[in-house]
Structures are given as C-alpha cells and as structure tokens.
Amino acid sequence: MGVSSATIRKWASRGKITRLGTAQRAEYDLDELYRLRQTRDRGAPSRAQTVDDAADSGSD
C-alpha cells in the first residue's frame, strides 16, 4: 500500500480513519485507507520532495 503502520496509527489517532477490531488487534477499512492515501498523494508534496526542492534552491 505504500504507507507505514506508524502512519496508519497516526491517522487513526487523529480521527482521519476509523480504527476497528479489538483492543489487542487493530483493523482498518481498506477502502478508507486507499481514499485517504489518494487524497494525501494529490495534496502537499512529500517530505522528500520538499527537501530536494530546498536543496536545489540553495545551489545558485
């Protein structure tokens, strides 16, 4: 899916996705995860892109 488990946990704690399952086992709706990932992919540039852009602008 291209998203780390830490990111999924963060999204759940921030209310961006719904955590299902039990206290011992977290489960998430895959459709909800894919929608959020697509939204994220269309939004702001990734951290790597931002760093690359900053490095490029300082090489004048």
The level of helicity is: 55-70%
Task: Give me the side-by-side strand order of the main sheet.
Answer: 1-2
Q: State the major sheet.
A: 2 strands, antiparallel
Counting helices, strands and paired strands, the structural category is: mainly alpha
Annotation, overall tally of beta strands: 2
How are helices and strands ordered from N to C? HEEHH
Strand content: 5-15%
How many DSSP H or I helices? 3
Rg over CA atoms: 15 Å
End-to-end gap: 38 Å
Give the CA-based shape. Answer: elongated
How many domains in all?
Answer: 1
Uncertain regions spanning at least 5 consecutive residues: none
Average pLDDT over all residues: 77
Outline the secondary-structure elements:
Layout: H1 5-13, E1 19-21, E2 26-28, H2 30-42, H3 47-57
Antiparallel strand pairs: 1-2
